[in-house]
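pinging the channel bc i need a second pair of eyes. not urgent but kinda urgent?? the chain im working w is below, pasted from the shared doc
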Amino acid sequence: MKHNPIHKKIAVCLPSYKRLESLERQIFSFMHQTYASEDYHVFVAVKGVTEYVFNKMLVPRFRHFIETGRLTLRYFPNKNQMSNIIDTVRDLDISGYDLFVKIDDDDFYSPDYLENINDFHSTLPPCYSSYYNARDLIARNLNGFFCLKNAFYRFFGFALNMSPQVLEKVMECELNPSLMIPIVEKWQHKTGHTNFGFNEDNFIFMLMREYGCANMADYVKEQGILPHIVVQKGNPSVTRGGMIEKRFLIANASIATDPASWEHLLELSHPHWRDSFRIQGKRGRRLDGGSLASVLERTPERLILCWDDWGVEVFEADENAMYVLAGKITAPEG
């Protein structure tokens, strides 16, 4: 007979970069979980699109869920992946949550995913985290067809369920990466290693073992829950699929908090063109036109660019964060 566990308060943490279509599907998917809606909340950190796209396309689409208190949808610059996870709940009161469930934007989770996690955790000590690591189904794109394949794959990175103690420690390590050193020495026998900006799952897993964790695989098998999760291999990986540039990877290898290393994407409106503009540090380029520029000033209200090819332009932001050309083109100095 199946027991009737007490529902834990679950925070679903969803950072998303560039994959807008996948993000929209995932949000709708988690708005229709079988878990009681009052017992979970979805926190989304959106990256890799312009703030204009965020304001005009994403927010209106999900306004109902935001206003009814089921979804927190916020916009951030792209950072290292550890910080991107933290961004989902950054500066929010999360003291009432018992479990923090990290999900990917492009994978497929069962409609009972949160229900199953809650059931499994009712068999564990209160401070425990959990993960899922088993031979299971992987979604592949074969000649344009969606196909499911059995494969042994390390699923824990797509299904990490963190206790509050683990998430709190992750946040502490972002502010002080030296705190990572003794943890890495203990679990990986490496000295002085803190470069987990894009290997965040492995570090979180170390922390989970510090406080206690368990693999859900046997429970999922015993309960006949198929599929519990299907990892999507048809989409490019953020780190291995060319979604981020090498310079950005190098600058964000550790979980540093230097804004100069972050990636910003702005929407520019010009009388002769409209384009997205990518900034890292003090340099940027148009995504479509390819023109390069130095960033002389950037505020939420104004952007001043010195283009390599034709001089200085001033843009002013409208109410939706579209930067519209406001100043005259001037000849470059010298």
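so Residues 313 and 329 are 5 Å apart (CA to CA). and DSSP finds ten helices and 18 strands in the chain. — does that match what u expected or am i reading it wrong
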